[in-house]
Amino acid sequence: MIILAIESSCDETAAAVVRMSEEEREILSNTVATQIATHALYGGVVPEIASRAHIEAISPVVRRAVNDAGIELSQIDAVGVTYSPGLIGCLLVGVNFAKSLALSLGVPLVPVDHIKSHTAAAYFVSPGLKAPFLSLVVSGGHTSLYNVTRPHTFEEIGGTRDDAAGEAFDKVGRVMGLPYPGGRAMDELAAEGYNARLQGSAVPLLHFPSPAIADSSLDFSFSGLKTACVNYIHNLRQKEGIDRDGALPKEQMAEIAAAFTDSVTEGICRKLKSALEETGHKKLVLAGGVAANSHLRKAVEKAAAQCGAEVFIPPVSLCGDNGAMVGAQTYFEYTAGVRADSDLNAYASGEGAAAAQALKMRKIEK
Questions:
Q1: Residues 177 and 237 reside in one and the same domain
Q2: Within this chain, do residues 183 and 287 fall inside the same structural domain, yes or no?
Q3: Cα Rg of the chain (Å, integer)
Q4: What's the number of domains the chain is made of?
Q5: CA distance 220 to 230
Q6: What's phi and psi for 152, nearest 5 deg?
Q7: pTM, 2 dp
């Protein structure tokens, strides 16, 4: 079947056309309009600005996705759209556009969870991937472990209790004065720090707290790690007589990035190993925007190998928010019988979406 999928949960307006079946998983087009340059002026995503940018971009992005796929609108079998979680104003743009389009084409409308979509990106590059498996989704808003029993059935077995890994990377990068988005710059700077260590850097090695909660749960907490790193940077500037926003010596910045990355990857992999052991899964998917981090990818591959698990990781081009991943998950939701009516709403949190669905089911039962 041919699916048109729309994604607008944060600061990327995306649309894609995919061809999906049990044997075929093909991306016909994948168009993304990014807002990075706009939000770089503010050091982070401004929700109101983001939603207005989606309004301007949604129509041309969808049109380009259809044209690039070389199809006619009449060939589309279903429209999928991210409806939760995300920034509510941004989600509403995509949801309302998708509702109108599906209605005009007379095709099913399929609501899709953003986190499930990140995991589904792995299906395009791993034909042998089949549930059940463990999914680790690491992004700007989420750091969670999921027991995936079926392609459309996810059980969260561990997650962050406060900040997410991506948010922590971006915040520390911003305090260090790195270009937005900080996570990408931190990845490159950490590589310099690791290389300096190998060459016998004169900068003392740093150690920051682990984000792995020290109990039997599979949960994380990145708030303390983020605060410890930010405080270290501020104290270092005071000690060196550098202005609050002044640039630190490059060698020290590289070591900070490397030490911070060490803590993030160590903490995530510690809980990951426990999750693999508890679930008994021998297949693991690493997904989400932070899955593009080269050091996290290597650490997860090593941890999985130690547990005898096979790792499936989408290419960097499919780690960030995109329409193709939504298209892949749309197929699995569609085959499971998931449909939406014209009253489909958007929800900022997955919990809100689940509560609304439960209420709807009760109404149906009555």
A1: yes
A2: yes
A3: 21
A4: 2
A5: 18
A6: -115, 5
A7: 0.93
